[in-house]
Amino acid sequence: MTAATLQSYEDVISRYEPVIGLETHVELGTRTKMFCGCATAFGAEPNTQVCPVCLGLPGALPVANAAAIEATIRIGLALNCSIADWCRFARKNYFYPDMPKNFQTSQYDEPLCEDGWIEVDVDGEVVRIEIERVHLEEDTGKSLHVGGATGRIHGATESLVDYNRAGIPLVEIVTKPVVGTGAKAPEVARAYVTELREVIRSLNVSDVRMEQGSLRCDVNTSLNLPGQEWGTRTETKNVNSLRSVERAVRSEILRQAPLLDAGERIVQETRHFHEDTGKSTAGRSKETATDYRYFPEPDLAPMAPDPDWVAKLKADLPELPRTRRRRLQAAWGLSDHDMASMQNAGAVDAIEATIAAGAKAEGARKWWMGELSRRANEAEVELSDLAITPVQVAQLQTLVDAGTLNDKLARQVIDGVLAGEGDPEAVAEARGLAIVSDTGALTKAVDDAIAANPDVAEKVRGGTHAAAGVLIGAVMKTTKGQADAKTVRQLILDRLS
Amino acid sequence: MTIIRSTAAELAAGIAEGRYSAEEVTKAFLDRIAAVDEKVHAFLHVDAEGALATARAVDADRAAGKPLGPLAGVPIAVKDIVVTKGMPTTAASKMLENWIPPYDATIVTRIKAARMPILGKTNLDEFAMGSSTEYSAFGATRNPWDLKRIPGGSGGGSAAAVAAGMAPLAIGTDTGGSIRQPGAVTGTVGGKPTYGANSRYGLIAFSSSLDTPGPVARTMLDAALLHEVIAGHDPLDSTSIPQDPAPVVAAAREGLTGDLSGVKLGVVTQFAAGEGAEPGVIAAYQTGVEALAKLGADIVEVSCPHFEYALPAYYLIAPSECSSNLARFDSVRYGLRVGDDGVRSLEEVMAATREAGFGQEVKRRIMLGTYALSSGYVDEFYGQAQKVRTLITRDFEAAFNEVDALISPTTPFTAFEFGARTADPYQMYLADLYTIPSNLSGGPAVSVPVGLSDGLPAGLQVMAPTLRDDVAYRVGAALESTQEPRLSDQIPDVADKEL
């Protein structure tokens, strides 16, 4: 078998054991930057959120953001880490135009949190992922290459740097190598990042949006023969979606196996993942990697979190997503599969809130997983970005339960709510959307329909009740869908009996 | 001449009492700068307009009956490594030629709040690396006592400005002795405060864990007055100590009464031997020790066994930190850019800029520091040096269990001639032999003029426990009180000397 031979994933996995490791960066949603008072808002005009400190101007000094330290400790606690009683920042020295000081203030041998774990569910199985460390650092700026066709540096006439992001607090979460997952390695990687995202979201410390880069993931992958030493790993960068995390592991397994089969050596390198092709290309080789020359940051006082404070932060942690999911799943009587799809749709919070606002579980699930998910998909936004609140959905369902709206009318009410016309009741009233159950008005519509369709009426009289559908349709048309179908049917049958 | 021969304390009193205006005072120093700085080259930038504007504002306040601060209207010169908003700040490097900072250092903010006219920015060894001010990219400063000789470094500009009567006060920064050593060789007072007592915010960093801004003056009282203007906690500097500054003005006044009874002073055995020191310097120092004993001080010998490793430890720690601190000078955002022809890569432009922008001593230390921090060597060099630093700090702690302060010569030799030590960096580094231990421990120290050796000034250093700057000022002021006339009052008439 040569390197060029295409291999099936199943074949590769039957012969090799994958080892994965994940390094996740999370931009914290603090109001100000890590070491200065600059704002952190996303999408501001370039270089409008900068000062001498985050620009690294000569003489400027950092002061650590207490809110960022607290958020990091909370993440560490949620991931079952132990919290250092004393630690320091370190300087990681390397030259990069995005990085104003040409060193990154980070942590090296003294992380704030270490030795934790998190459990994730994969196909009904519980997989425990060990966490090596959680530490705090500052983000870099962003280069923009202009004048070229591709927006990349090649062919560009100028490179501009935006330092708005420089200095935003960044938490790095590193797993220990994950072994023994076999064919499920890609799913485990995805499930881990999904779970991590949920945990951080539940702590309300970051908006964890992969597409905006507030959660970024580097995926390490290696293959080894059963019973043998671990293989050389590669580090795939730029993985910007949950789907890509899974694809990156899978494609790297498929790339490495034929090379190993052919007796070639895996080069330790960083690889860049391309969302469009699902493939990665080689980046910097680790063998020529920079010597970062770490040393303790002399401009910052060491950190010594008060153990009582840490204990209080631990006690105040919210119910963590997996525990909560288990509780809700039991309460709602759902299958693993249904629960997982709610999770993937990002609908659990909304559904829980809708039920809390008075809706029945089934109704709440139906709207969020059905109509509203569809609209979010069409608009290419997150479910939580839709301009409708769980309370409004609960109100909507209440109107349906009361027989005031049917599903078709309810969908029109949703149109109105999303258009900002107000709460469901107000929309229904303003748009004149309500089921007509006034028998006087309906009787006239029924008589009109019978008169207009004598043949059909005859069939119904003859006992073919199914034919009544045509008459119901006609009544619905004249009442613009606002008649209650059951009432109409009964009226027709009464007339023609 | 009366104005420029007056101390800062006298000037402040004169302005407050209306004997002269702040404008007259500022003008007198600006005139002196115009007359002699061509020969001394203490200043890299003079801001006559700005200084006069501040002086006039002080005069207006006085006329309006508003209360004036203790040094209001007294002019000051600032070492050009301290950033000043709207005023060039170069660190004496081509790398920052023409750079105008958009912000003020905290100590400058405090100087402005004290209404002190800023005369301009003084010369230094590039990025404060050196002991002779010969490494300035814009030409050396000359010692007003002998224009063929160095004024010390790196704060040679600040010391020479005060020694030559061009400024009554100046700001220096002390990383390994850069306030005290120039003070000693120019016959001025130099104070290195406790590390963290004065904000470093706005000091262009050389070695972050050692840099300390402090006063350069003609008398201990003047130094103390300036010390109290600039000292105090700064939330912008995370290493700044959240504590009120030591009462150094009161301590200096107490010292000037000339009574040191009950004060125990330690002579460091390792320095007393005076190895490598000039006999004249040792002799001047001995007269100082005798004078202190006469004031009632109890003088004892104290051993600080690790002081002999201070110099090598310093020359690993300071370059390590500088290699990181100076990495930001990369041509990308401000300062010099060389070779950007649209063809060269970013890395090539960065390299060309750093090659052209940094002088030899700065490059030497960047290389040394990069090596000392590199993987495989970091434990052997940087790590070992940090251990030595801890041992030296413990030596001080043990000594201060025995005595109130330690005394030593400030420098092993007086001002040498230009070029005498530039060929051998180690010979240059020896200039800071006695001053470095205080930087490594973080404790305060002052240098007081103590006498002449072959017609050139020599200094005596007083080292005190951390946060006890007042002890150093009291002992220094007591020594000063025994001198009649004070060495620092003898402003050498540089105008008469040949270049």
Automatic annotation (TrEMBL), chain A:
Catalyzed reactions per annotation: L-glutamyl-tRNA(Gln) + L-glutamine + ATP + H2O = L-glutaminyl-tRNA(Gln) + L-glutamate + ADP + phosphate + H(+); L-aspartyl-tRNA(Asn) + L-glutamine + ATP + H2O = L-asparaginyl-tRNA(Asn) + L-glutamate + ADP + phosphate + 2 H(+)
Q: Look up keyword Protein biosynthesis and say if it applies.
A: yes
Q: Answer whether the UniProt record assigns the keyword Transcription regulation to this protein.
A: no
UniProt keyword annotations, A-Z: ATP-binding, Ligase, Nucleotide-binding, Protein biosynthesis, Transferase
Which molecular-function annotations from GO does this UniProt entry contain?
asparaginyl-tRNA synthase (glutamine-hydrolyzing) activity; ATP binding; glutaminyl-tRNA synthase (glutamine-hydrolyzing) activity; transferase activity
Top-level taxon of the source organism = Bacteria
* GO terms (BP aspect): glutaminyl-tRNAGln biosynthesis via transamidation; translation
- EC code: 6.3.5.-
InterPro entries listed in its UniProt record:
Asn/Gln-tRNA_amidoTrfase_suB/E, Asn/Gln-tRNA_Trfase_suB/E_cat, Asn/Gln_amidotransferase, Asn/Gln_tRNA_amidoTrase-B-like, GatB, GatB_Yqey_C_2, Gln-tRNA_amidoTrfase_suB_CS, Gln_synth/guanido_kin_cat_dom
Q: Please report the stretch or stretches of sequence annotated as the Asn/Gln amidotransferase domain.
A: 349-496
UniProt xrefs under HAMAP family? GatB
Subunit structure of this entry? Heterotrimer of A, B and C subunits.
Which family does this protein fall into?
Answer: Belongs to the GatB/GatE family. GatB subfamily.
* Function summary: Allows the formation of correctly charged Asn-tRNA(Asn) or Gln-tRNA(Gln) through the transamidation of misacylated Asp-tRNA(Asn) or Glu-tRNA(Gln) in organisms which lack either or both of asparaginyl-tRNA or glutaminyl-tRNA synthetases. The reaction takes place in the presence of glutamine and ATP through an activated phospho-Asp-tRNA(Asn) or phospho-Glu-tRNA(Gln).
Protein's name in the database: Aspartyl/glutamyl-tRNA(Asn/Gln) amidotransferase subunit B
Whichever gene encodes this chain, its name is gatB
TrEMBL record, chain B:
Q: Per the UniProt record, which EC number(s) apply here?
A: 6.3.5.7
Known Gene3D superfamilies for this protein? Amidase signature (AS) domain
Q: What is this protein called?
A: Glutamyl-tRNA(Gln) amidotransferase subunit A
Q: How does it assemble?
A: Heterotrimer of A, B and C subunits.
- Catalytic center at which residues? K79, S154, S178
**Entry's transmembrane regions:** none
| InterPro entries assigned | Amidase, Amidase_CS, Amidase_dom, AS_sf, GatA
Q: Name one GO cellular component term.
A: glutamyl-tRNA(Gln) amidotransferase complex
Q: Which family does it belong to?
A: Belongs to the amidase family. GatA subfamily.
Catalysed reaction(s)? Answer: L-glutamyl-tRNA(Gln) + L-glutamine + ATP + H2O = L-glutaminyl-tRNA(Gln) + L-glutamate + ADP + phosphate + H(+)
Spell out the Pfam families in the cross-references: Amidase
Q: Name one GO molecular function term.
A: ATP binding
Top-level EC class, please? ligase
UniProt domain Amidase: residue ranges: 24-469
- PROSITE patterns, sorted: AMIDASES (PS00571)
Alphabetized UniProt keyword annotations:
ATP-binding, Ligase, Nucleotide-binding, Protein biosynthesis, Transferase
Function per UniProt: Allows the formation of correctly charged Gln-tRNA(Gln) through the transamidation of misacylated Glu-tRNA(Gln) in organisms which lack glutaminyl-tRNA synthetase. The reaction takes place in the presence of glutamine and ATP through an activated gamma-phospho-Glu-tRNA(Gln).
Alphabetically, which GO biological process terms does the record hold?
A: translation
